[in-house]
Amino acid sequence: MAHSQQMANAIRALAMDAVQQANSGHPGAPMGMADMAVALWGQHLQHNPANPHWANRDRFVLSNGHGSMLLYALLHLTGYDLPMKELKNFRQLHSKTAGHPEVGVTPGVETTTG
């Protein structure tokens, strides 16, 4: 299995697990958009997980914020400061993984969406 397919499947698994554990959330976007997101992040976007505020980065905005586990899984798998512990706290109070992405809370999130 190709690395990109493994990563897309990892996104799907992380999303399913997080939504199930939270007993809340929307798994449809991460499930359906995983392949596209892996291609975009892996082959086209310029970003630096070690420096999320790098001035020359491309910006990824997930306008359907309720599909936030797609973004959180991508950030986690590509090396941003978003450990598994935070994914397990999806949609919990004071978590870096709120139900909708929030700028300034989660490294790599470019704007708050809903």
In terms of topology, how is this protein built?
Elements: H1 3-22, H2 28-43, H3 68-77, H4 84-88
Notes on the structure:
This protein has helices at residues 3-22, 28-43, 68-77, 84-88. The chain is mostly helical and 114 residues long. It is globular. The mean pLDDT is 96.
Provide a quick synopsis of the model:
The chain is mainly α and 114 residues long.
The first-to-last residue Cα distance is 34 Å
Low-confidence stretches: none
Query: Tell me, what's the shape?
Result: globular
Largest sheet composition: none
- Radius of gyration, in angstroms, nearest whole number: 13 Å
Order of helices and strands: HHHH
Overall SS class: mainly alpha
| Number of structurally distinct domains | 1
Say how many strands there are. 0
**Beta strand %:** under 5%
Share of residues in helices: 40-55%
Please count the helical segments.
4
Mean residue pLDDT: 96
Characteristic key phrases:
mainly alpha, 45% helix, 114 residues, 0% strand
